[in-house]
């Protein structure tokens, strides 16, 4: 078709559609906003959310255009995470949905962990089944309010410790009381449990296999009818509070550490009491580096240890982009030096050593490490040095990584992460 003919047809089509589009518009628009109950409250809360987040930060950060946009991104991440739950969360037809992670980067998600959660009713009966996989950890925990009655059973289930058939499949019943005659795996459901969260932790990203997992409610019909307006409205009205909680919870966490004097040094961090996994030990501290400076994080290494890692975050407690940068290291990626001690270099420029964490343009941020099921929990010593002097603080036999090798490593890291099932 000739160009002039095509343009003429498009013009005719646009002229024909215009009256129909005008008719499709509502006859009147309320000056007070939407007529949908709950919508105005959501928009109202979102309208000043970034400002309320910025108000928790020092004045210099509040005035920084870069920080302002990163705060807006954090607000969007919180909204996206909680909107997904508001849309898909259902105690009667549950499924494990993404919660935090690479895109929903709220509260420093661990670079090795994929987090998913499913809503549950503490009075219900559920069935969990799938294949256990071969990850370093695949652990499901029940989320209950602090200080709530939590029963006497296990707070967590490790998929690798369940009864598996010859194909590696598990089948677990979850209920407040164990049914008479039930011979398979059973897990006591806590009366105030509101959801289940699974943490899928991989050390060797390219080789370990993620589990498969389904959940179904057994004490309700399998089919799900049309959701009533009251339920949809309740979800909409609950959303602003959940977004607020996520967005405001940790936005000033790094700044608080700075105020306490933990800059370029670390302290222990108790997250187990706030819902973290039993058996995990954390340490963290803020960092502050010039372009020509580096930190050397040095510690002993436990004799036995299921998992260890060190990650970085920015000043808002978002985990530094580990998909596209060399910004996280676990025990499969960072070996101890020849003297048995673990040394990791943190800097904005590549020092050419194997154990390097890239700040990726964040001159200030946070270092966080964790030991999982280890026979000791050493708190590292942190030393600030000039970037050009890094090797003089490392063993003489420390290896060298060329720029070309680093690019290859990062590309392989990225490919391995993208091939993990997030959604």
What does the model show?
- The protein is an alpha+beta fold and 423 residues long.
- It folds into two domains: 44-249, Jelly Rolls; 253-418, Sandwich (Jelly Rolls), CATH 2.60.120.1600.
- It contains eight helices and 18 strands.
- The protein has a five-stranded antiparallel beta sheet, covered by helices on one side. A five-stranded antiparallel beta sheet has the order 10-11-17-13-14. The chain has a four-stranded mixed beta sheet with strand order 7-6-3-9, with no helix packed on it.
- It starts with a helix and ends in a 5-residue tail after the last helix.
- Residues 1-29 have low confidence and may be disordered.
SSE topology sketch:
Elements: H1 3-24, H2 39-47, H3 49-54, H4 59-62, H5 65-88, E1 97-98, E2 113-119, E3 126-131, E4 137-143, E5 156-158, E6 169-175, E7 185-188, E8 195-201, E9 212-217, H6 229-249, H7 253-259, E10 267-269, E11 280-288, E12 293-299, E13 305-313, E14 328-330, E15 342-347, E16 356-358, E17 364-374, E18 381-386, H8 403-418
Parallel strand pairs: 6-7, 15-16
Antiparallel strand pairs: 1-2, 2-8, 3-6, 3-9, 4-5, 4-8, 10-11, 11-17, 12-15, 12-18, 13-14, 13-17
Helix pairs in contact: 2-6, 5-6
